[in-house]
Design a protein that fits this description.
The chain is of the alpha/beta class and 202 residues long. The chain has nine helices and five strands.
Length: 202
């Protein structure tokens, strides 16, 4: 009996942690709106006009992408702001990249996890699909906290996990200690486009 339970637990965990990268999305119509939501990493701080990752991604995938990034925003502020934007634009897809300012201000990962999860659920309640973009914690390892994988696994989301960490580790892809430059944002756009293709959205 114990062996059976252990096997069941292993299968559950494999499903939980494995469904993020392999999660599927419905095809994204050409006229569909995409809402890129986040803080300065979405806004494009550190690069010129038209060089943010949403701007570059829109050209790559041939879709209208609305850049809804606000520099300095915490996840709690994002959670309060998101419903109005979802109702205004009625996007088919939400690209969610949030939590970095919580980490920079030592606000705690638990609050960021709760807020990001709540944002995903707000979108889902409106029939909006979600792709999650993990943000590094800007600590010694520059790796994303496990909260992003937990949320992706729990809610069955496609997730881009490694690209921002790779960018932040490479001085040639940054404009300062935490923001990409134009080349860094282009790399992020390419990674998100690859995730959308793998998920079947484009």
């Amino acid at each position: 009996m114990r062996g059976f339970l252990n096997i069941g637990l292993c299968l559950f965990l494999l499903c939980l942690w494995g469904c993020g990268p392999s999660a599927k999305l419905p095809p994204l119509p050409g006229e569909a709106k995409v809402l890129a939501f986040g803080d300065s990493l979405t806004y494009g701080t550190g690069a010129g006009s038209g060089q943010s990752y949403p701007d570059v991604l829109g050209g790559m995938i041939g879709r209208d992408i609305i850049n809804a990034g606000i520099p300095g925003e915490t996840s709690a502020e994002g959670l309060a702001r998101l419903p109005e934007l979802l109702d205004e634009y009625q996007p088919a897809l939400l690209l969610l990249c949030h939590g970095g300012n919580d980490f920079l201000r030592n606000l705690g990962e638990k609050g960021a996890e709760d807020n990001v999860r709540a944002m995903v659920k707000l979108a889902r309640e409106r029939g909006v699909d979600v792709v999650l973009i993990a943000v590094p914690s800007f600590g010694l390892t520059l790796s994303p906290p496990d909260l992003y994988e937990r949320i992706a696994g729990e809610l069955g989301l496609p997730i881009e996990t490694d690209t921002l960490s790779r960018i932040i580790r490479d001085p040639g892809l940054k404009s300062d200690s935490v923001h990409p430059n134009a080349a860094g944002y282009k790399l992020l756009a390419e990674a998100v486009a690859g995730r959308l293709k793998a998920a079947g959205a484009i």
